[in-house]
């Protein structure tokens, strides 16, 4: 039964990883910007929800606030940090360092304003009950899965059915061609940042209810998203989402076999193995060398 | 991952500038420098605030009472509870600020800085960490807090009496966690208990659902949590959310607001040093009243310990001033060993040959967000 | 006071070595490693073990550290041969994260989170020495080697494969060997820095070898200017002394000092990247640095 329990817990965690990773993959795929401050969107969204909740506002207002804050932050990063750097044709790593600097700033600001350390949303939703002998599930398990499924359905509809969505996918494949057709890659890149960052908000809100937040949480989220994007294959949203799910499950199910302190290393072992043995990821186009 | 924590490097930088800002070593009328090596930022910043407020109140009281000819001032170095920053901060306190007395906390940090202080013969006083190997680290390293072995010794009979015999341990694999693991492993069987399972978690782990699933498997009577800081709250919530209904127990690090304020922490039982703020001595009452007036909340064990640490310095230095002896590590130590017993918050504090204070232990329970002594 | 200034100069020199060696792979070979702290750590542990259990001879500690770190550089050379760009960064991040866990768990070698304490003072030919001259000599040697390699055939091969790997390969350059050798040199250098660090602080634990440290060293290289000789050293000096100005800020509440330092620090990183993306020493007119 331990296995089933760990698997279910892994799916719950993995669903949240998948959402965040898909957001990162969308941004990276469309703009080729390694948005290292994606985790910061997550942190900000989580704390925005927390503030609304503690202020006695209904959950849906908090959710909207979380999404809005994440989107605004993503857009601000695109306009104020990434675009000026790319004007100089700054290298990939210049972007990385700049984003890392922003992550440090926001982390400490959040710590000063919201208090350092642990904060969580007090709700019964995260309280697990025994559904099968020795298998405990919380209502939030079903919520996480439902949210993930609905959002992915909505995202794929957006990317395949709407004009903007199709253009985004085209941007990922051939930005020059897109420009030739008279579409503004600038506006599309902002769209990618808005949608991608918003994807982090639901996961952040659910995390605030389950494991709780701290000002440094974005860091871990970021690493997982990046790992999932690579493992899934760059450019593939489906791949990133599946890989996120898989990393969550791996981290949890690993406890069946190894001692508890190794759980975190498992995700990165998977990542490392993928890069060495299958660098194209699940669905990606081979990009070795 | 602990998140971007660049202050350790930042500290080096601060230190780099320091010689140019505050030249010249301490002179006649200069204040006594009380160095503090506390986490002031990062996930354990909460402790630094607690520790500092206790020490600051003691300085205020000493000034009001005109205990010393020279004033005291705090020189804070942020350690983020990390040993490397501790060593860097301690080197600065010793070499640049010429600290007379350094307050430390956290087991790993204390162990790392002890050799630096030992070499410089600077007194270091711990009022927060409880790793048993902190006893006798150096002749210049004192403890004004009963160490973990005293806590567990007092705690195990209580657990047995409550019929909590099979204990599962969730611990962080650092010097303190190791110490508690070792104590439970050897001491539990002696009192008729049993260590049902041990679960090491990384210091930065956030997900405790899967750990809870493993803990459930061992069918313990109680779960002992040996972590510190904000992670404790996360562990407690993770365990409670995921079907652990057994009592959760622990040690004095649990007495911080982020734990006591957590709804899931209701009923958590832990040990701490014994303080009686209402019926106790004049010193204790004054401390409790003034602390409450200043901070609007009841003082906790940590506030009191660091108050005591600074008060101890004031008492020792007063003695030395009366004899016109220079205040340094050796003279402070000689005086401590000569006097041995001091009037401190919580009653008489008695020190042994190594400079460890013994004190009574009480068992507390978190009830309605407050810490209530139950035994 | 002088002891204290020396202490800081030592740390700057050690980080100068780290930044200079990382610059060698980043700036000349185009390999963006975020796992430099792993090799720094390996060297530190190896050096500390030598000092604790054999003799506290600085030279021996440095040699052993260089061998251990250089030998294990294959862990990173392997992905470097397979992938480039973001993929390699991710691989090195993965290695960094695994190494952090390993460092915390392999207690026999690393002492776990508690670390290795009471590492004896270093000696050289039986005489006790301070680490500062050793670190300065090591830094000078590494800069000298870098300058030589940069001008020599090896350096040109590396730069060729940084700018156009397939072309270099087509011209008959042995890409795999060149990359592996570059990694070996850089990681061995990081190992030496590690050994000096351990001897200097007489204490090491895993918290000095985390991803934050790797990113910090990377930031030194980028801020100073990739592919330049002096850029990384200047980056190290700036990043270690930048927050010094904060000491002049009149009043920050004690509980916020750490946070304020980090905020200014992070801001400086971001602003520098926006306004001087090629680094302080790097030549802007040449446009982008690499990658």
UniProtKB/TrEMBL annotation, chain A:
One of its GO terms (cellular component) is plasma membrane. CDD domains: TM_PBP1_LivH_like. This is Branched-chain amino acid ABC transporter permease. The chain crosses the membrane at residues 6-26, 57-80, 92-115, 135-159, 188-210, 216-234, 265-286. It is a multi-pass membrane protein. The keyword Cell membrane applies. One of its GO terms (biological process) is amino acid transport.
From TrEMBL, chain B:
It comes from the Bacteria. InterPro entries: BCAA_transport, Leu-bd, Peripla_BP_I. Keywords: Amino-acid transport, Signal, Transport. Coiled coil: none annotated. The keyword Ligase does not apply. Gene3D superfamilies: 3.40.50.2300. Residues 32-369 form the Leucine-binding protein domain. GO terms for biological process: amino acid transport. Pfam families: Peripla_BP_6. The keyword Hydrolase does not apply. Belongs to the leucine-binding protein family. This is Amino acid ABC transporter substrate-binding protein. It comes from Neoroseomonas marina. The lineage of its organism: Bacteria, Pseudomonadati, Pseudomonadota, Alphaproteobacteria, Acetobacterales.
Automatic annotation (TrEMBL), chain C:
It is a multi-pass membrane protein. It is found in: Cell membrane. The chain crosses the membrane at residues 6-26, 33-52, 58-80, 124-149, 181-203, 215-242, 263-282. Pfam families: BPD_transp_2. This is Branched-chain amino acid ABC transporter permease. The keyword Transmembrane helix applies. One of its GO terms (cellular component) is plasma membrane. The keyword Transmembrane helix applies. GO terms for molecular function: branched-chain amino acid transmembrane transporter activity. Keywords: Cell membrane, Membrane, Transmembrane, Transmembrane helix.
